[in-house]
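Contributing new records

If you add data, match the layout below exactly. Sequence lines come first and carry their own label; structure lines follow with theirs. Keep one chain per record. Anything else will be rejected by the validation script.
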Amino acid sequence: MLTSQDLFKRRRQRVRTQIRKVAAGRPRLSVHRTNQHIYAQVIDDEKGVTVAAASTLDADLRSKLKVGSNTQAAAEVGKLIADRAKSAGVTEVVFDRGGFLYHGRVKALAEAAREAGLNF
């Protein structure tokens, strides 16, 4: 029987395979969620570099947020990652939710990034 970690790895790999098919050279907006924080990175897979990164651990967000594990915090990270990506010259990305469901904090981050100007 597969453990929950094994199932998560399968889901993540399945999502990543689909992203590779439709990416067409666009950077990937990767999201990672833990019980206490949420992290986002814009990754250029062709060059193998991280273009922009943001999380609830950033100093400017920590002072603003009371808790790093709610949808409000995820929305703030989404706005911040969109601003940093745009300043790095990236406006088109592919959303990589990893093995996480598109619901709750992951959805809040994605919608805030869209509203702030990222297209995906």
